Amino acid sequence: MLKLVRIFFWVVVVLTALMQLWQEYQLLQWHKPLNVVLYPVNADAAPVVDTYITSLREHDFEVIAQFFSREAHKYQLPLSRPINLYLGPEIHEVPPAPPAINGHWLDIILWSLKFRWFSWGHQPAVGVPIDIKLYLLYHDPSQHTHLMHSTALHKGRIGRVNLFADQRQHAVNTVIIAHELLHTLSAGDKYDLNTNLPLFPQGYAEPYLQPVYPQQLAEVMAGKVPITPRRARMAKGLEETVIGRPTAREIGWTK
Predict the structure, then answer these.
(1) Residue 128, Cα to own-chain centre: how many angstroms?
(2) 20 to 30 Å CA-CA from 172: which of 62, 122, 146, 160?
């Protein structure tokens, strides 16, 4: 009897894993637009952040949907609007923070499970089926000069995005949101984790430009515009970013 229980358990595990792989495969076939829900979070429990979140409207994030439409057109994707964005209600609990970048692999696995459990319990309905959930952690700019790296998981299609609650930072915030959204679709970072500089050539919007420097645009998965081999600046907004061919390949837009 115990042997049958064990066999049944592993059959369920394998079938669940296969079903998840099939769902992920189907998602990246781009047969239909993906519904992305943005859940704002007051990460500092600060009144100024409350005020900022209250001011947010769904159309504030339309520029992100337009960015994906513009880039999809370049790759002849048969969808005029591959991403639909919805602003969900505020979440009043902060998602679990990831371990340090050089943390033990077991800590990373445990955090991933905790984050997925958090997401399962914090997904208010928005009237449409949800494909991707991004938790936008807004911070009080008077309390922070720098924010921790944002993180996203393609397993579970969830992201934890650190942003400044400042209207002057909104355009840069949209770059960060688009970057993390692409992580949920299996796109990888295209910058050096030690220097934060874009990697050549995959992290350059126009790697074959002559002369190479200065570049005028940023590859969204690098996030910065290379000025010299050792200097780059953050993209000011999505109008300065592109989805390069390596990223397009990772998310199923090209072969």
Answers:
(1) 20
(2) 122
pLDDT in tens, 49-108: 999 999 999 999 999 999 999 999 999 999 999 999 999 999 999 999 988 766 677 888
- Which phi and psi angles does 151 have, rounded to 5°? -140, 150
So what's the pLDDT on residue 25? 63
What is the side-by-side order of every strand in the sheet holding 158-164? 83-87, 34-42, 132-139, 158-164, 151-153
Both tokens of 28, joined, read 């990246």
Reference 201, options 245, 252, 254; nearest CA is: 245
Q: What kind and span of H or E run contains 183?
A: helix 170-184
The DSSP letter of residue 178 is H
**Predicted model pTM:** 0.91
Which residue would you say has higher pLDDT here, 52 or 255? 52
Contacts of 17 (CB under 8 A, 6+ apart): none
Q: Provide the 10 A C-beta neighbour count for residue 175.
A: 24
Q: How far apart are CA 132 and CA 111, in angstroms?
A: 18
